[in-house]
Amino acid sequence: MRAPLIAGNWKMNGSLELVATFAEELSRTALPGGVEVALMVPFPYLEVARGRLPEAVGVGAQTLSDQPSGAFTGEVSGGMLADLGVQMVLVGHSERRTLYREDDAAVLARVRAALGVGLVPVLCLGETLEERDAERTEAVVLGQLEAVLDALTADERQRLVLAYEPVWAIGTGRTATPDQAQQVHAAIRARLASYDAQLAETTKVLYGGSMKPSNAVELLAQPDIDGGLIGGASLQVDDFLAICHSAG
Predict the structure, then answer these.
(1) Rounded Cα–Cα distance for residues 148 and 146 (Å)
(2) Cβ(238)–Cβ(196) under 8 Å?
(3) Contact 50/86 with Cβ under 8 angstroms?
(4) For 8-33, what is the mean pLDDT?
């Protein structure tokens, strides 16, 4: 069985006060058994989050450089993240692909950089509204997946977490229906099975399109949805905890 993972992505939001609020609430609230919980916080808050959040809550970064070190002002390497006790890192989030022009080659380089220092890459996959309307959802999503899997070894593939994030449902208030989300998740898992049956059985595939307390139960009930990559709702501790309990 794949343990559900609920990962909050704060994006470029947060403060020391918000970290303290989450640390207090998560320390005194029992998390559901068998559910993995993590928060992806901005770089400046990684160390304090790792120090204050309960050990059961993973801490992740939102991106990383594809370079180990050097004259790359403003960049943060995977080794630096690992040095802080970070366990996972988002790679290929739709905002990175769109706003910062990270193509499949750039995403692959970052996946390899994360794997090289022992971080778990959370590889994000998703289509735009135009691509969905053109009935290209599976071609786009599976193409993004194959661009990474084809370049990795079997062992490296086993270390990935995947997140399907329909770009048209991020920050818009729109959400894919459970059936729409499940259809894409099932296609992702079928493609994983084409590489290796065990890979398909063990890889977590999260849903990342505006999951919130009101729709989490129905989305998480789908057979191929193994958790959520939570955006806006992860900035409200009560909402985030409600989603965590929906996965239990």
Answers:
(1) 5
(2) no
(3) yes
(4) 97
User: In degrees rounded to 5, what are phi and psi of residue 193?
Assistant: -65, -25
pLDDT tens digits, 147-187:
999 999 999 999 999 999 999 887 676 778 999 999 999 99
Q: If DSSP codes are grouped into helix, strand and coil, which group holds residue 207?
A: strand
Give the span between the Cα atoms of 10 and 232, in whole angstroms: 7
For 187, the 3-state DSSP assignment is helix
- Please say whether the dihedral angle defined by the alpha carbons of residues 95, 96, 102 and 107, taken in this order, is positive or negative: negative
Measured CA distances, 50 to 120, 171, 212, 246 (Å): 16, 27, 25, 24
pLDDT at 122: 98
244: Cβ–Cβ under 8 A, 6 or more apart, which residues?
6, 31, 32, 35, 37
* 9 strand-pairing partners: 40
Task: Compute how many other C-beta atoms are within 10 angstroms of the C-beta atom of residue 33.
Answer: 7
Catalytic residue ranges: 93, 165
Would you call 31 helix, strand, or coil by DSSP? coil
Q: What is the average per-residue pLDDT within 107-130?
A: 97
From 1, 3, 40, 64, select the one nearest 248 (Cα to Cα): 3
- Residues 131, 16: Cα–Cα separation, whole Å: 39
Antiparallel, parallel or unpaired: β 57-61 and 36-40: parallel
Quote the CA–CA distance of 165 and 144 in Å, as a whole number: 12
Q: At what angle do helices 178-195 and 213-220 cross, to 10 degrees?
A: 40
